[in-house]
Amino acid sequence: MIVIGKNAVLEILKSTPKDINKIIFMRTLKPEKRLKEIVLIAKENGIALQSLSKFDFAKYFNRKNKDEGISQGVVGFMKEFEYTILRDLLNNIKEVKNPLIIVLDEITDPHNLGAIIRSAVCLGADGIVIPRHNSAEINHTVFKTSSGAAKLIPVCKETNISNSILYLKQNGFTAVGADAKTKSLLYEVDFKRPIALVLGSEGYGLREGITENCDELVRIPMAGKIDSLNVSVSAGVFLYEIFRQKQI
Fold it and tell me: Total structural domains in the chain?
């Protein structure tokens, strides 16, 4: 797997440097602080470094069809992302008071997935569940969008999301689904308990079978001119409210 961008590569170097095998970066006369830090940490951990001119760097990415990396000037090569088994995730967070698991139902845009992961890490979620099919996977775009946060939270890839929700409920979680059509409002819900926050796809929201497995359906209050937010923005709003309640 490749990881593109200074922030994403630097975050992985700081958290799990042994996951990166090689780093290619674009030479510059005045390297900025982040690039200097990347090179320093890579050398400390014996990671192979390759410096390319701007022309060769652009040529390399054109050949690899990754034009978005040219302006970033850094790419890391790492082992394939390792997903967590949901059962193992629950075992690992047994001691966490009022844990929060995010369940994503068919989020197909890797930029949205990356943004949700970044918010999840910033606001204290304990894990994420995605479906094995009809979903974005953890790839270089997700790593870049999340600024490397995808390495900082367990992500489970499950065959059946409905069964995953039922399994979480059997283990003491309340399944709260985001639904723009329901009457219950976000700030009316008590989130100071184990929560499985269920978010639907970009275009259609939660599927009918998924809503039936949720214990509660809630929505974000809106001004009325537009009736919905981008799913990654909605995730941030929900996650902040959950974080806020836990601080009280």
Answer: 2
The number of C-alpha atoms within 13 Å of 233 and in the hemisphere containing its C-beta is 6
**Mean pLDDT computed over 78-92:** 94
Which of 31, 56, 78 is the endpoint of a domain?
78
The 3-class secondary structure across 50-92, one letter per residue, is: EEECHHHHHHHHHHHCCHHHCCCCEEEEECCCCCCCHHHHHHH
Q: Report how far residue 84's alpha carbon sits from residue 151's, in angstroms, rounded to the nearest whole number.
A: 12
Which residue has 């995605």 as its token pair?
130
Comparison of pLDDT for 78 and 238, the residue scoring more? 238
SS3 107: coil
Cβ neighbours of 123 (radius 10 Å): 18
* Listed residues 62, 78, 94: the one ending a domain: 78
Between strands 2-4 and 195-199, the pairing is unpaired
Q: CA-based Rg of the chain, rounded to a whole angstrom?
A: 20
Domain that includes residue 226, residue range? 86-247
How high is the pLDDT of residue 202? 80
Q: Band the pLDDT of 121: cuts 50, 70, 90.
A: very high
Beta strands in the chain (DSSP E): 2-4, 20-26, 48-52, 74-78, 100-104, 127-131, 155-158, 174-178, 195-199, 216-218
Asked if 71 and 95 sit in the same domain, the reply is: no
